[in-house]
Specification:
- The chain is of the alpha/beta class.
- The protein contains 8 helices and 7 strands; from the N terminus they run βαβαβαβαβααβααβ.
- β4, α4 and β5 form a beta-alpha-beta unit.
- α1 packs parallel to α2, α3 runs parallel beside α4 and α4 packs parallel to α6.
- The protein is globular, with a radius of gyration of 18 Å.
- The N and C termini lie far apart (43 Å).
């Protein structure tokens, strides 16, 4: 017997009633995403690994604009530290309904010169970090019957890039995880999507030779962290409830 399609309207959520957890939120894209989600009404949890001062500055900007921000310091690559931090967050009153897996590092080198420890560090932060943060939050989100999981990938995962085998491999893994998890959670009214930025004007591209890179971008300019954050905020909104399992590029036409 063919199951009847579900024509009921999806559950609506007031952003003020669900918190958003953003990893790697002390700078760059993560900071811009945290500010955008706070502007949309979510109380925001700012995860960061090391920079207390930078994280406090982001929180200060959010509160000055009328938003709500709390700091949560832990290394997403550390399974035990992540588990302890997430357990603490789950013990608080408001549920976490939005997860933005943004934390990541790059250790660029030609593949023959790529050190094993750098390969492992990149994968631990990006892929283990995705697992460590997301896995313990999925069932509480399923019980809420609403959720948004947004994973930051990269244009390097889509088209490849010389000297970025480790980074591209980790970010490509995020795409596979996104597509698979989206299928698992769709009927629970939880969307899972990936955003794949191109060259964005942040600290991560400070060593990129722009005279060689800009001609490869059809738009002939760098993107801004706010442009990425605007897409993430849309994917976290009720308006994006029928978008899941997708990889959306913010790359000026590179891919």
């Amino acid at each position: 017997m063919t199951p009847r399609p579900n024509r009921s309207a999806p559950r609506e959520i007031d952003p003020k009633t669900v918190r958003a957890l953003v990893t790697g939120a002390s700078r760059g894209i993560g900071a811009a995403v945290a500010e955008a989600l706070a502007a949309a009404g979510h109380p925001v949890i700012l995860n960061y690994r090391a920079s207390d001062e930078a994280a406090a500055e982001v929180a200060g900007r959010i509160t000055a604009a009328g938003g709500v921000a709390t700091l949560c310091k832990f290394d997403v690559a550390d399974a035990d530290a992540s588990a302890a931090a997430i357990a603490g967050l789950l013990g608080e009153e408001l549920p976490i309904g939005v997860i933005v897996n943004n934390a990541g590092i790059a250790r660029d080198a030609p593949f023959p010169a790529l050190r094993r420890e750098d390969w492992q560090a990149v994968l631990r932060t990006t892929l283990d970090g995705f697992f460590n943060v997301t896995q313990p939050l999925v069932m509480p989100m399923a019980r809420l019957r609403w959720g948004r999981i947004i994973n930051l990938s990269s244009v390097s995962a889509v088209i490849g890039n010389r000297g970025q085998v480790a980074y591209a491999a980790a970010k490509a893994g995020i795409i596979g995880a996104t597509k698979s998890l989206a299928r698992e959670l769709a009927k629970r009214n939880i969307t899972v999507n990936a955003v794949a930025p191109g060259l964005i004007e942040t600290d991560m591209i400070r060593d990129v030779p722009l005279e060689h890179a800009l001609p490869l971008i059809p738009a002939r300019r760098l993107g801004s962290a706010r442009e990425v954050a605007s897409l993430v905020a849309y994917l976290a909104s009720p308006a994006a409830g029928y978008i899941t399992g997708q990889v959306l590029g913010v790359n000026g036409g590179m891919a």
